[in-house]
Amino acid sequence: VAGEWLRRLFGLPEGVSVGFTSGGTMANFTALAAARHAVLRDAGWDVETRGLPGAPAIHVLAGEESHSTAYGSLQLLGLGRRQATRVAVDGQGRMRADALRRAIADAEGPTIVLTQTGNVNTGSFDPLREVAEAVAAHRRDGHPTWLHVDGAIGLWAAAVPSLRHLTDGLELADSWTTDAHKWLNVPYDSGLVFVRDAEAHRAAMSFGSHGVEHVEGGRDPYDWVPESSRRARGFVVLAALRALGRQGLIDLIERDCALAQRIAERLSSDPDVAILNDVVLNQVLVRFRQPGTPGPITPSVDAAADSFTQAVIERVQADGTLWLGGRVWHGLGCMRVSITSWNTTEADIDRSAETILRCRDEVARAWLREPASR
User: Fold this and answer.
1) C-alpha to C-alpha distance for 26 and 22, rounded to whole angstroms
2) Alpha-carbon distance 198 to 346, whole Å?
3) CA-CA distances (angstroms) from residue 254 to 41, 117, 369?
4) Mapping DSSP to helix (H, G, I), strand (E, B) and coil, where does residue 81 land?
5) 338 close to 344: Cβ distance less than 8 angstroms
6) pLDDT of the chain along its 374 residues, tens only?
């Protein structure tokens, strides 16, 4: 029931299979295992019984800023994280459709394309419809091809009418993953995977009849995920969805995205603060100018700005008003603010922005007093 409710919320095709995994990593692993099965099956190879030795080579195309769990899944599946062709992205981390078309033209044989909705740093979305058109053309040329969408953060935008345009073309993919511990606010250990080709999904995960008892005519959850011993993750997802309802979930996501805009506006009003990304979802990247630097702040490579920004992050973490972390994005050290809680209010955001700027001022004073200590 929980899987069907989610399918409808995300606008995925009828009949997709669903698995409740231990997290986003295993969700990606499951989807890519199904992809590996399907493209090799269509090339005449049974990977579950024969393994990879002697199998046709699989071409994997992934955006340069695909999440590390996607590459980690390729490693676990024996496809090799360094074997993937890294497709160029734009300034916000979105896969460039023209670069994908060039890369896929060179992929002869079984091919898997990895895209994402909700870049972990910027919140940006790959151009799914254009990518899906390139994938469809590759299939028509006779190459078994699979399109996967890693939507750990951004798949939830598909449930929100005001944000759904960001996921245009989502329904054209072959598999999708997300994390319920983010916007659904259930505990960790709640990943979700959806697969269009249910046969490929089950073939990649099921142990078959080897010493495993199956329910006649029913659903055995471990046929759809890597774990046999597992808790009933669908229960907490069902409870959260039932408590929120469709409109409650929409309101939560819209509110958090508006709050991300609010903190970006509060911080960027300071002339010594730069917001590095277009705030399209709930992610905000912040960079600070070190004290004593003349001229307007620019998002350029600067070791002193990196160190100063890191010092501000550490001061905010020690303060305890809010939690945030650091990132290196496009070679720039920055502060990453991510808002997903159902509890966060405008007052929280305003207090957080004031805290960040106060901590910045405290670090700046310390730097000016003791420049040798940097």
Assistant:
1) 6
2) 43
3) 42, 16, 43
4) coil
5) no
6) 999 999 999 999 999 999 999 999 999 999 999 999 999 999 999 999 999 999 999 999 999 999 999 999 999 999 998 899 999 999 999 999 999 999 999 999 999 999 999 999 999 999 999 999 999 999 999 999 999 999 999 999 999 999 999 999 999 999 999 999 999 999 989 999 999 999 999 999 997 655 566 666 678 888 999 998 888 899 999 999 999 999 999 999 999 999 999 999 999 999 999 999 999 999 999 999 887 776 667 667 688 899 999 999 999 999 999 999 999 999 999 999 999 999 999 999 999 999 999 999 999 999 888 765 55
Phi, psi of 136 (to 5 degrees): -60, -40
End-to-end distance of the chain based on CA atoms, in angstroms? Answer: 56
Q: Are 263 and 349 in contact (CB under 8 A)?
A: yes
CA dist list (Å): 150 to 168, 182, 310, 352: 14, 14, 29, 30
Give the separation between CA 281 and CA 285, rounded to whole angstroms: 12
Q: Which residues contact 195 (CB under 8 A, 6 or more apart)?
A: 16, 17, 18, 19, 30, 31, 34, 174, 175, 201
Distance CA 16, CA 129 (A): 19
Report the 10 Å Cβ neighbour count for 293.
Answer: 14
Alpha-helical regions (H) of the chain: 2-10, 24-42, 47-50, 68-76, 97-105, 128-140, 198-205, 233-268, 303-319, 346-369
For residue 115, give the H/E element and its range. Answer: strand 111-116
Taking the C-alpha atoms of residue 147 and residue 323, their distance in angstroms, rounded to an integer, is: 35
Among 56, 147, 50, which Cα is nearest to 110's? Answer: 56
Query: Cβ(156)–Cβ(183) under 8 Å?
Result: yes
Phi, psi of 29 (to 5 degrees): -55, -45
Task: Name the amino acid, one letter, at 213.
Answer: E
